[in-house]
Amino acid sequence: MTFSIANQISLQLFNFIIVVETVVIILSMLVPTILFKFLLLIDGDAEIRTTELARIRHDMVTKGIESLEAMALPPAVKAIVIYDLRDQIRKNTLGSFFEQWHAFTANKAGLTKLQGGEQRRALMHALDAERDYLFQLEKNHLASSDDIDEIYSELLLAESLVLDPRNQML
């Protein structure tokens, strides 16, 4: 609309109108973004659900790691499996990732076939303990079925990746 009247007004007034329109457009985008942050209510149910899912995942991974402690595993295999389990709750730092990567690349042979099998068995054992934990939570009605189902589906996906022969490094 401003450009349609450009020939009828002075250049100075035209530039002023363009600046005003630009400021109005930018403010119309910024003001609601900032105000809605303070005016709109926080969805308490979503926050509670997120916290509850994090707690269930943490307890589940703790059960999985505890089940590994009962197994007789080489330290290298146990460290890899614990790293993988802790990854479910995003507790691995960038530094621990680089440590794992360096340990894997520094060892030219990698894990032996036997250690790879032990790693898969240990992961399956830990994932089984995690599934048992989720089953007990649902059986005793200590968590909602929707929360358990969401975490259970993630756990099954992780298990399918462990079992997938095309996904294996050895």
What order do the helices and strands come in, and which of them pair?
Layout: H1 11-39, H2 44-69, H3 75-86, H4 94-106, H5 113-139, H6 145-163
Helix pairs in contact: 2-3, 2-5, 3-5, 5-6
What this model shows, in words?
With 170 residues, this protein is mainly alpha-helical. The protein is 74% helix and 0% strand. The protein has helices at 11-39, 44-69, 75-86, 94-106, 113-139, 145-163. The protein is elongated. The chain starts with 10 loop residues before the first helix and ends in a 7-residue tail after the last helix. The model has no long low-confidence stretch (mean pLDDT 82).
Order of helices and strands: HHHHHH
Can you tell me the residue ranges where pLDDT is under 50 for at least 5 consecutive residues? none
- What's the overall geometry? elongated
Quick check: average pLDDT? 82
For the sheet with most strands, the description reads: none
What proportion strand?
Answer: under 5%
Distance between the termini: 67 Å
Structural class: mainly alpha
Task: Work out the radius of gyration.
Answer: 28 Å
Query: How many beta-strand elements?
Result: 0
Residues in helices, as a percent range: over 70%
Number of helices: 6
List keywords for this structure.
170 residues
Brief write-up:
This protein is mostly helical and 170 residues long. Helices cover 74% and strands 0% of the residues. The longest helix has 29 residues.
